[in-house]
Amino acid sequence: MSLDTTALNRRMTHFDAHEDFWLFGYGSLIWKADFAYLERCPAHIVGWTRRFWQASHDHRGTPEAPGRVATLVESPGEHCHGMAYRITPETLAPLDHREKNGYRRVVTELHLDDGTTHEGLVYIASEDNAAFAGPAPEPEIARLIDTARGPSGANREYLLKLAAALRDMGHEDAHVFALESLLR
Ligand code: SIN
């Protein structure tokens, strides 16, 4: 799959006719909401685990020295906690641009902390995308995160802000917290 997923995502028309719908964020979308939204609510999805297995060439690294950012890998029964945003279809264009380095729009069921369940959208960088780095020992991932930097800033900032946001929401994530301690 080509590195830039913008065109592929535009072909996914599932939400185009909706007045509004929920977006689930599990990485930088938790702590950097620089897009228009109507309301937000902590939420989780089932069957996925967060992993720093996606290379970042455009935000937290460069093509020469890619960083590592979060994606989701299938994990039956696991809960992945994050933040849900109610958005309108107009917000998809800026989101597609932001998530263009390998992430695809995926329809998912999401569970808001207010007890309601909705069909929603999540951006996932699956293992067939050109920037998928895959599993590696956590000390190795932490070393890359420690030094990488891209147009959006230091890779460390991405990881540390995500760990702080998860802690603020009262959620454990062993992988994220292990990377955080290795960085500190
Ligand atoms: C997300 O946060 O939901 C996707 C990955 C990212 O933008 O960091």
Brief digest:
The protein is α+β, with helices and mostly antiparallel strands and 184 residues long. It has six helices and seven strands.
Under the CATH scheme, which class? Alpha Beta
Uncertain ranges: none
Q: How many distinct folded domains?
A: 1
What is the global morphology? globular
Task: Explain what you see.
- This protein is of the alpha+beta class.
- The chain has a single domain (6-183), classed as Roll (Hypothetical upf0131 protein ytfp).
- It is 27% helix and 35% strand.
- It is built from 6 helices and 7 strands, in the order αβαββαββαββαα.
- It has helices at residues 6-10, 28-31, 92-98, 138-147, 155-168, 174-183, and strands spanning 21-25, 39-56, 67-87, 104-112, 117-124, 149-150, 153-154.
- The strands form 2 sheets. A 5-stranded mixed β-barrel has the order 1-3-2-4-5.
- Strand 4 and strand 5 form a beta hairpin.
- Helix 4 (138-147) crosses helix 6 (174-183).
- The radius of gyration is 15 Å and the shape is globular.
- The relative contact order is 0.23.
- The model has no long low-confidence stretch (mean pLDDT 96).
- Residues 25-29, 69-70, 99, 123 line the site of succinic acid.
